[in-house]
Amino acid sequence: MSKTVAVTSPSHFTQILQSSRIVVTDFWAEWCGPCKAIAPVYEALSSQLSRPGQITFTKVNTDEQKDIVQTYNISAMPTFLIFKGGRETKRIRGADPKGLDAAVKQLAQEASSADEGGAGPSDGGSSGGRWTGAAAPRGYTEVTEQVDIQGLDFLNLDGNAGDKRAVFAPEKPSSLDGKGKASESSKKDWIESDTDEQLMLYVPFQSTLKLHSIHITSIPSGSEEAMRPKTLHLYSNRSHVLGFDEAEDTPETQKIEIQESQWDEKTQTAKVELRFVKFQNISSLTIFVVDGDGDAEKTRIDRLRLFGESGEKRAMGKLEKIGDEQGE
């Protein structure tokens, strides 16, 4: 009996992504010859490597599940997507048995290693190898990868701290030791405000999102020169960064006060839930750090993680069938 799961709807696919650490998906069609040619290889991998809650093999009929095809921008048959922690990590176009076999078996080995001694939510959260600070909210996946890094625009940033891209780095903050305390680090992978405690962060996205929550990691410095953010004003769908004076005169989409009890002692991370109905179809998010929790001169942020649902990247084009080719 086949262990491969036939996806029946977008919600069914979302449920699979949330319930299995690794998901391998075959986008295929009845009319696609290369799809049929590689199907036995895919079924053999599924039979050998499927493990409940760890590795799940799925098939998406592109003629029946056009919403899923559009969401993941599938333009050729067959296409194989590999997800870790609900996040796409690899895409293989064409009937490439060797490439598919190698990629899937590498993931199976990683899953086995994680079972033996990998990090879990208790030591910082793990989403397919990414450090998330805390477990993802139930029913939603991490969408941080949708941030348009090239379009980031931060105001009042201290040039002696890390680059603005540092807050979206996938790894655990270098200043966080195993017990959740600040430690000395020569790698400045965090950001700090400059002339006062305020920061303005303009974060554009590659596609429209539905945002549910934000994980903010802030590790207080031992010198007490920098503090955690406290009051945040969030603005959705701005076309550019707001100036500080402009922000004072612009109604925020949501105002947030982070309480001391929200900061996890071990990960130094606060989980901030948004008013979900106000953050639908979001193309950008502006975060105004109004003040910090303390009397220090600067505010510090080590990591930002976003959770919700990814939307459309672009309109779906005509599907094509491809064989052994591996490029565009």
- In the CATH hierarchy, what is the class of the largest domain? Mainly Beta
SSE-based structural type: alpha+beta
Low-pLDDT stretches: 115-123, 314-318, 323-328
Given the structure, what is the number of helices? 5
- Mean model confidence by pLDDT: 85
Give the overall form. elongated
Which H/E pattern describes the elements? EHEHEHEEEHEEEEEEEEHEEEEEE
Q: How many domains in all?
A: 2
Structure, explained:
- The protein has 328 residues and is of the alpha+beta class.
- It has two domains: 5-118, Glutaredoxin (3-Layer(aba) Sandwich), CATH 3.40.30.10; 126-310, Jelly Rolls (Sandwich), CATH 2.60.120.
- 18% of the residues lie in helices and 32% in strands.
- The chain contains five helices and 20 strands.
- The strands form five sheets. Strands 9, 10, 12, 14, 15, 16, 17 and 19 form an eight-stranded antiparallel sheet that branches. Strands 1-3-2-5-6 form a five-stranded mixed sheet. A three-stranded mixed sheet has the order 11-18-13, with no helix packed on it.
- Helix 2 (33-49) packs parallel to helix 4.
- The longest helix has 21 residues, at 97-117.
- It is elongated and about 65 Å long.
Features of the shown structure:
328 residues, Jelly Rolls, 5-stranded mixed beta sheet, alpha+beta, Glutaredoxin
Summarize, please.
The chain has 328 residues and is of the alpha+beta class. It is built from 5 helices and 20 strands. It has 2 domains: 5-118, Glutaredoxin (3-Layer(aba) Sandwich), CATH 3.40.30.10; 126-310, PITH domain (Jelly Rolls), CATH 2.60.120.
